[in-house]
Write a structure and sequence with these properties.
Strand 1 and strand 2 form a beta hairpin. The protein is α/β, with parallel strands linked by helices. It is elongated and about 115 Å long. Strands 6-7-8-3-9-10 form a 6-stranded mixed beta sheet, with helices on both faces. The structure holds adenosine-5'-diphosphate.
Length: about 625
């Protein structure tokens, strides 16, 4: 057996013991009920035709009814438990894969190849290659098959081994029968295994078609993209994309067509072959019974046991051969699960300081994103003074967000270092280092939980603190309109009475979340882009008061907000090209003046009260 299969089974047996036991019992009990019926039918018929003892016939009938009833009830119970347990385990597996995203090195979580790999795992059922889910589903089936095969053979053996001198008791019949049975059941399995191999070879092509199909279906499923779909008349483009997957010459459909063709032929051949085998067995049994070498009951049990064998053997062999054939599905799973986790390189604890005296500095920092050759940050040097508010400005793509990712250690620089109180940031315990920062990213996410939980980022919510912060970020009025207050759900995914917030309201909440959690270093990356200028002005005023004594970094495109900062860092093509206060920089020829003039011009054109904005 392939190594990766062994690993998967080992994991299933050790992590999901309950499921393993239930699968064995469910498979065994579902198999024995029909076999017991067969055995007792044979015994009852033999009894009627031989001793004709009415008491033992009645005894057999009652015993058979009781055993069949009990095994069916127990089998049904375990099958129910199996279905329940499987759905639990499948959810756990899915959770494990999702949690992996949070544990892996951050660079992988952002990598489009890894995202594709993760997406692939949700659609991997195709391609004839088993997944862990498939192995779990099959456990009961394998046990069912093994039990049926063993007991059917036990029922069939006496048919060939009655002791008499008749020609029908020749062991050659038994050997011939077994050989024919194996040929008729193994042959189709070998062919289907070959077919599976072919399908696996096409797997990558199919995968692409599946990803496209899922992506497009997802667009149609979600509510938000429908604005763009309608306004940009994307219906035609979407239909074409779906057609390319759906059309008869798409790889997916070609594969399905080939699969159906080959499997159809195999099934047809198996059916004809098994009918021939069954006919031979009935002929053999009839002759044996007619010559008085066998009880008449064996005609019933022999035929039924053989029919069961013919049905079950190919399924069993197919499951076995699957384990020796392609392991692509499992390999994809483990390739993803084995991606390196965020390494805990440092171990120094971050000193707890009530005075928030955490001095950040950056020395000779340069950085390129993995798998790219563009230097995004070049020779950055800066010492942040504790308690100051820094504004970071620069054109799109000048490296501002990347700089934040490096400061917070989401990425490690190729050159240079980030220092906290003079010690290289990577020497610190990473979790403790992370918890110094409260960051509102440009593309922040507010999950669809309750309002209070979202702001507290926890289940325990300090209601008074949340309300105080709502007042400060300008969300209090909106909050007062909510019937369920902090228990109001955000969005309507899980609660049809949830609220849909505007972009500006969401930003206020994201800022509230950062303030509630009382970090020591605040970073706001374009936090107010969706706010109107007046709300922005108010937020910055409050923000300055609330973050007194703590270092804050604010990336903003609205240069008016720089008025609130003590110092401005101007980024251009990955370098800090200017540094100083607004008053100094605005009067200095350079990037800042250029950006400022362009923006002031806009506000004047728009006739906005520039006094209020400080322009
Ligand atoms: P800014 O915040 O100033 O707009 P960014 O730091 O987001 O700029 O981006 C700087 C450069 O790095 C851009 O050229 C951008 O395309 C590139 N970049 C940003 N994120 C990634 C990423 N995850 N992988 C590769 N390149 C990236």
């Amino acid at each position: 057996m392939n190594k990766v299969f062994l690993r998967a089974y080992k994991e299933i047996f050790s992590d999901y013991k309950r499921l393993t036991i239930i699968s064995i019992l469910a498979g065994f009990f579902s198999a024995i009920a029909p076999l017991i019926s067969i055995y007792f039918s044979q015994a009852i018929l033999n009894e009627i035709t031989s001793s004709r003892d009415i008491n033992s016939v009645i005894g057999f009938i009652i015993l058979s009814l009781i055993i069949v009833f009990v095994s069916q009830v127990v089998g049904g119970l375990f099958s129910y438990l199996f279905t329940h347990e499987v759905s639990n385990v499948i959810k756990q597996l899915e959770l494990k894969r999702n949690l992996k995203m949070t544990k892996m090195e951050f660079q992988y979580a952002e990598d489009p190849d890894i995202k594709e790999m993760r997406r692939r795992l949700t659609i991997i059922g195709f391609g004839g290659s088993p997944t862990i889910e498939r192995l779990i589903y099959d456990m009961r089936g394998i046990l069912f098959n093994v039990t049926t095969i063993i007991i059917s053979i036990l029922i069939l053996i006496p048919i060939f081994t009655t002791k008499s001198n008749s020609v029908y008791d020749s062991p050659y019949f038994f050997v011939a029968f077994i050989v024919l049975l194996i040929i008729f059941t193994v042959l189709p399995s070998i062919v289907s295994q070959k077919q599976n191999k072919k399908i696996t070879e096409m797997f990558h092509e199919i995968n692409h078609a599946n990803s496209l199909f899922n992506y497009v279906s997802n667009i149609l499923f979600k509510a938000e993209p429908h604005k763009e779909v309608r306004l940009y008349n994307q219906k035609e483009k979407i239909s074409k994309s779906l057609d390319s997957v759906r059309s008869s010459d798409s790889p997916l459909n070609k594969m399905l067509y080939n699969m159906l063709k080959v499997f159809g032929t195999i099934q047809y051949t198996v059916l004809v072959a098994s009918m021939v085998l069954l006919l031979c067995l009935y002929l053999f049994l009839g002759l044996k019974v007619m010559h008085g070498n066998l009880g008449i009951g064996y005609i019933v049990s022999g035929g039924a046991a053989l029919t069961l064998l013919i049905n079950v053997m190919p399924q069993f062999i197919e499951k076995l051969t699957m384990m020796f054939s392609s392991s692509a599905g499992l390999e994809y799973h483990y390739e993803y699960i084995d991606l390196p986790n965020q390494t805990q390189i440092g171990s120094i604890p971050v000193e707890k300081r009530l005075d928030n005296n955490y001095a950040l500095s950056v020395k000779d920092l340069s950085f390129m994103y993995p798998k790219t050759d563009k230097v995004v940050l070049k020779d950055i040097n800066i010492d942040f003074e504790v308690g100051k508010v820094y504004a970071i400005v620069g054109e799109n793509g000048s490296g501002k967000t990347t700089f934040i990712k490096l400061l917070t250690r989401l990425y490690d620089p190729q050159n240079g270092e980030v220092l906290l109180n003079g010690i290289s940031a990577d020497k610190y315990d990473s979790q403790q280092y992370f918890s110094l920062f409260y960051v509102v990213f440009q593309d922040f996410d507010l999950f669809s939980f309750k309002l209070g939980e979202t702001v507290a980022a926890a289940s325990d919510v300090d209601i008074e603190r949340v309300i105080e912060i709502f007042k400060e970020v300008g969300f209090y009025e909106r909050y007062q309109q909510l019937e369920k207050g902090l228990d109001t759900s955000l969005n309507t995914e899980f609660d049809k009475n949830g609220i849909s917030l505007s972009g500006g309201e969401k930003q206020k909440l994201a800022i509230a979340r950062a303030l509630y959690n009382n970090g020591s270093i605040f970073i706001l990356d374009e936090p107010t882009a969706a706010l109107d200028p007046i709300s922005e002005f108010e937020i910055y005023q409050q923000f300055n008061e609330m973050t007194q004594g703590k270092t804050s970094l604010i990336i903003s495109h609205r240069l008016s907000s720089c008025r609130f900062s003590d110092e401005i860092l101007v980024f251009d093509e990955g370098r800090i090209v200017q540094q100083g206060s607004h008053d100094t920089l605005v009067n200095q020829e350079g990037k800042y003046q250029e950006l400022w003039t362009a923006q002031a011009q806009y506000y004047q054109d728009e006739n906005i009260d520039t006094d209020l904005l400080g322009i």
